[in-house]
Amino acid sequence: MPHPLSNLQPQPLWDIFQEICEIPHPSGKLEKIIDYVKNFGEKFGLETSVDEVGNVLIRKPATPGMENRKVVVLQTHLDMVPQKNNDTAHDFEKDPIDAYVDGEWVTAEGTTLGADNGIGMAATLAILASNDIPHGPLEALFTIDEEVGLVGAFEVKPDVLKGDILLNLDTEEDPDFYIGCAGGMDSIIEFPYETVELPADMQTYQLTISGLKGGHSGADIHLGRGNANKIIDRILWKGTKEFGLRLSQLHGGSLPNAIPREAIASIAIPQNHDETFKQFVLDLTKTIRTELATVEPGLKISIKPTEINNLMDEKSQAQLLNLIYSFPNGVLGMCADIPDLVETSSNFAVIKSEDKKIAIITSQRSSVDSIKQSVSNMIDALCALSKVSVKHVSQYPGWKPNVNSPILKTVQKVYEAQTNEKPNIKAIHAGLECGLIGKSYPEMEMVSFGPTIKDAHSPDEKVSIKSVMKFWNILLGVLKNIDTK
Question: Residue 274: phi, psi to the nearest 5?
Fold first, then answer.
């Protein structure tokens, strides 16, 4: 029986992408996709290895007559971001992605699609499987857990790759080609508190923020989308001061590199303020909807009765809500050298109530390492004022642009020959594995490109069918025109 994508071109790529969709591969749960890629290489008799963390490397000899070309590394990552709508029943560790064609796009039913980076993986595997695509010596590097801190790229050792050129197939907008990226780090805060009993004269509610677009905390941060964690804190902070609101539980966001789409708080309100508080929520909802009308037309703020067992102590609640309100979020600075490029940002990413503790994650990015460090110092200072602990993890370097790179000139020449247009040469305010790999291989030429993918890291993710064909043709053209050694 044909799969839903079987009529799309290039068919070898889409056939493999469908197979990838059928294999669960959320970040942190990659055993099945690692086995799939390893077995794929071995099936075609190619030199295949898996390192100690799970990165897969496959080598393919040059097609006859192209043995003297520079060695090219095709680099992609194995994991996908597991995001779904609240009303979607889906287990990312067990269930396949339900991909389907929607007009000019491929998308998924209620979940992320995994085109990031499944299309790049599928293109690479299709090239490895082919007998009629001209290319020089190839290395295909598939790294683990890019989406949760570039984990696999951190573990690529300096003596593993033989390549002279790296093509990273993990960007999301045709006709953009990237030659630089931001570095970043995550900050993890632990906020302890005590619990107290719920007074008898209080009404208990669940306050929910939903309907936001979310998106990638680097690539989409400049769009000014709402952050569910900051929105809900705005309500809680004001509600505490004016209506005696008390907090029990608070949850929002799920991943450091995703702008929070939803947040939920369990709260209690004194009975004598019950009706005025609900009116306050309605009024503030209108205000916030007006503020975000253009970028977040789907924003919903709801309140409904719920059951609560205990409350956070008042002192800790005040400190927590003040801390959240004070955290930097969004664009903090623009690049002076490249037009419209965000230089520095922070994403207030995750809040999670645990046993007498609130866990918070923020994610900082900057193309200037000293400024990235300064933002982390800002978070240190805020946490010191609140006397809570913070640690900085998953630090990774940026990738410095080289506008004179020979591979960039090859890519530009191929693109212009195929399209009669000039590509956009950019740097990106997101972490690419090129930064880490380039640190171990400083002489390697690099460029990153891919098809058009919209709303990556959200259940609205979709990939342009037309742009996949274009991406495929550009990739094959570049491989055919690689310089000799």
Answer: -55, -55
Question: Looking at residue 434, what is its pLDDT?
Answer: 94
**What would the mean pLDDT of 183-204 be, rounded to a whole number?**
95
Are the C-beta atoms of residues 162 and 139 closer than 8 Å to each other? yes
**Percent of residues, the chain, with pLDDT higher than 90:** 89
Number of residues in the chain:
485
Show the tokens assigned to 412: 């530009």
State pLDDT tens for residues 222-273: 999 999 999 999 999 999 999 999 999 999 999 898 999 999 999 999 999 9
Q: 353: Cβ–Cβ under 8 A, 6 or more apart, which residues?
A: 249, 250, 251
At residue 374 the predicted structure's pLDDT band, cuts being 50, 70 and 90, is very high
Give the catalytic positions in this structure.
79, 146
Grade residue 397 by pLDDT with cuts at 50, 70 and 90: confident
Q: Which domains does the chain have, with CATH numbers?
A: 11-182+398-480 (3.40.630.10), 185-396 (3.30.70.360)
Tell me what pLDDT residue 441 has: 95
Q: So what's the pLDDT on residue 86?
A: 87
Task: Tell me how far apart the terminal alpha carbons of the chain are, to the nearest angstrom.
Answer: 46
234 Cβ contact partners less than 8 Å away, ≥ 6 residues apart: 284, 288, 325
Tell me the pLDDT band of 107, cut-offs 50, 70 and 90. very high
Q: CA angle, corner 441, sides to 435 and 443, nearest 5?
A: 105
In a 10 Å sphere around its CB, with 0-12 CB exposed, 13-18 middle and 19+ buried, how is residue 51 labelled?
middle
pLDDT in the model for residue 472: 98
Taking the C-alpha atoms of residue 12 and residue 447, their distance in angstroms, rounded to an integer, is: 24
Q: Which two tokens stand for residue 465?
A: 């069918």
461-465: average pLDDT = 98
What integer best gives the mean pLDDT of the chain? Answer: 95
202-210/300-305 β-pairing: antiparallel
Say if CB 128 and CB 85 are below 8 A apart: no
